[in-house]
Every structure is written in structure tokens, then in C-alpha cells.
Amino acid sequence: MATTHVKQVIKETIQDQFNWDDRVQAENINIDVADGTVKLSGEVYNYSSRMAAEEDALSVYGVVGVENNLKVRYPETYNVLSDDEIKFAIENNLKFDNRIEHRNINISVNNGIVTINGNVNFFWKKDVVESYCYRIAGVVDVNDKITVTPQGEYSDQDIASDLDRAFRRSGYINADEVKIQVSDGEVTLSGKVPSYVARIRANELAQFTTGVVNVIDKLILR
Description:
Elements: H1 4-20, E1 29-34, E2 37-44, H2 47-58, E3 65-68, E4 71-72, H3 83-95, E5 105-110, E6 113-120, H4 123-131, E7 141-144, E8 147-148, H5 156-169, E9 178-183, E10 186-193, H6 196-208, E11 214-221
Parallel strand pairs: 2-3, 2-4, 6-7, 6-8, 10-11
Antiparallel strand pairs: 1-2, 5-6, 9-10
């Protein structure tokens, strides 16, 4: 369990990161730290800022995870799109992305809250679809309900073995310091990585591994 001093150091470091990052409205964000998990609350001006704050918190040494409870409140000067316009913008982006079978994705929007339903055959495609929502003015939250149905059958052991080999090929990750657990296609990563870049790369490699349906990140920076 983190000591009070360690919690304070993590909190101050995250605050410094927010103050540095021009994408984030640091003065409106509250930070709490418990057992390495950072809880963010308060308000930001757009959804991109909400995601940037989460990225900044995850990049700090000692952080295991982030509970992002930030609310999006657009300034009155923003040209905020209507629900129908948001839906059209996301669907239009998907139509022009040849990686995504857009007919398998359904978008609905209610008061700026985007709900995504549908099915994809690789986990990384789920992340691609969600990313199209981040920069659209008017989006306040995203509920990603896409299911991943891999084509073919892949055992948990095969997934873990494939991912371990991918880690060992990577120049960012020491595979001996990362634990891979797989249950029904859901990958849990734990252990230590040397940098935020390594953490991101570990998650990407897990997402790109065939047969994976979800990724849980419990990595910490050493």
C-alpha cells in the first residue's frame, strides 16, 4: 500500500503534468490517489481534453490505473454539433476507413453521449472505432459496447504464447518483467515496464494479437 508521502508525490507529479500539457484545463481537475489508482474528477472543455488527462496520469511513475470521472462541459463559444450531426460525422469517418466493416457498427447519440454497438473480428478495431469520437465537438462521453468475435478458434495458451513472443521481439519491453494472463481471450498485463512508451506499446501488442477480445492494463512504471 502506498504511503502518504508516495501518494502526495504521485499527485503533485500528475498536477505538474497537467499544468504543462496545453490540452488539459488543470485548474478544473481534482486528483485523488489510492493504492496506485488515480481518480480524476472535475470538468474539462472537450472530450479530447478528458482523454489527454487520462494519458497524462498514466504516464506518471507509480500509477497502476486511472478512474476517469471527468465531466465534459463545452464553453458557450464552442460550435457544438447536434446529436444527429455527431452521429453523421462518426458514421462518415467509418465509411472512409477501409480497416473497419462499417456496416457492422451502429452509432447512437443522446445529449452528446455516444453509444457504439456492433461487432468486429479484432480487438484493435474496437479502439479505432472509439477513437473517431474523441475530436468531435459535442461529444461528452462514449459507451463502447462493441463485441469482439475472432475468426477461428484460439486457445488462451496460444494467445499468451504469441503475445510473449511479440514482447520479446520488441525493443521497448523486457518480457521477463511482464506477466501475461489470459482467460477466455481476455488479456491481463501486470508487472513493470521502463517507460510510458513501453506501457503503450505493450497494450498495442496485446490488442494486435489474434484471438484477444479485451485487454486489462495493470502495468506500472519502474
